[in-house]
Amino acid sequence: MRFIVMLMALAVAVARAGVCEQAQTNLPRLRIAKVIEVTDGTTRYMQPVWSPDGKKLAFTRDGFTGLYVRNADGTGPIKELTSADYSGYEPVWTSDSKAIILRTRKSMVSQSITLIDVETGEVKVIAEKVFHPRQPERNTRGDVVIEIGGERKVLDPATGKLRTMEEYYSEEIPQDEVRIEMDFRNKRLWIIQGDKRTQFPHKCYVARLSPTKDRIVFYGEGVNTYVSDLQGGSLVNLGIFDRPMWSEDGKRLVGIGAIQENEYTMTASEIFICNADGSNLTQLTFTPDIVEDYPRWSPDGMKIAYSGWNTGKIYVAILEEVR
């Protein structure tokens, strides 16, 4: 029954997206031309993350244990960067693709933030036993920003140390910088722009701000995913669109739908993409033998890396435009 409900919600979302008044009809449709198996399934890997130059993928194992790197075309050895617990949850590459920032669990409430050189494997702890640090991210300038104790700090690549934004930037910090902050307990989202703090009008459980800082994709009430502008307007229901991720240019979203589950695990899923405004919702994969999960756009927007929940493999789908 759950599978039927999910498919019905997805069908409704396709219909809505097709008549969206802000449909981005200038974007060409995409389809899969070829799929590469980056790993062979001998060891179970998941959640691939692209390097900014598009040449490598970082990925982890079940439970986000350990972090590994391989060439995105499946060549070369798989390199283990760390086997630490929880280190594989959404690691962040530095903009030069030479290092990765990750969090490592030290206790139930504290984590360490670590910088690992991908080539040499050198490990540098840049913050030790931090109480619930927020996920590191790259800002619009390409710098890695980490919020610790309510203060946002920038990683100085020259020293490998964290500095306050006022210390790091010699020029004035833009006052219109946009970011989001979740209140997980109350399922509320706040839009922060400079000194202005505005509550998002819809309840949400998880949200991602677009790279263009003008749209939000979020899990709403029930089982559906929505996309809207920063004011909560132009709202489009994408139906079952799990693991939503923005393309780097902010023009598209990728996620998984057609999800079927039993009590313990996912037993079926497919990859879907759509435009940033929710239009042109399109199913990309048709593979009943693979349960797709954790899809991610390549930096150029013409590849999607993902893992197979049932196969334990990392895949890269090479896309082409539909003429």
Brief write-up:
With about 325 residues, the protein is mainly β.
What does this structure look like?
- With 323 residues, the protein is mainly β.
- It has two helices and 27 strands.
- A four-stranded antiparallel β-sheet has the order 1-27-26-25, with no helix packed on it.
- The two termini are 38 Å apart.
Provide tags for this entry.
323 residues, mainly beta, 4-stranded antiparallel sheet, 2 helices, 7% helix, globular, disordered N terminus
Major sheet: order of its strands? Answer: 1-27-26-25
Order of helices and strands: HEEEEEEEEEEEEEHEEEEEEEEEEEEEE
**Which structural class should the secondary elements be placed in?**
mainly beta
Principal-axis shape equals globular
Using only C-alpha atoms, the radius of gyration works out to 19 Å
Ends distance: 38 Å
What is the tally of helical segments? Answer: 2
Provide the low-confidence segments as ranges: 1-23
Largest sheet: 4 strands, antiparallel
Rounded mean pLDDT score? 88
Fraction of residues in helices?
under 10%
Total number of β-strand segments?
27
Helix and strand arrangement:
Elements: H1 2-18, E1 30-37, E2 46-50, E3 56-61, E4 65-71, E5 79-82, E6 92-93, E7 99-105, E8 110-117, E9 123-131, E10 137-138, E11 144-148, E12 151-156, E13 161-164, H2 165-168, E14 178-183, E15 188-193, E16 196-199, E17 207-209, E18 215-219, E19 225-229, E20 236-239, E21 242-246, E22 252-261, E23 266-275, E24 282-283, E25 292-297, E26 303-308, E27 314-321
Antiparallel strand pairs: 1-27, 2-3, 3-4, 4-5, 6-7, 7-8, 8-9, 10-11, 11-12, 12-13, 14-15, 15-16, 17-18, 18-19, 19-20, 21-22, 22-23, 23-24, 25-26, 26-27
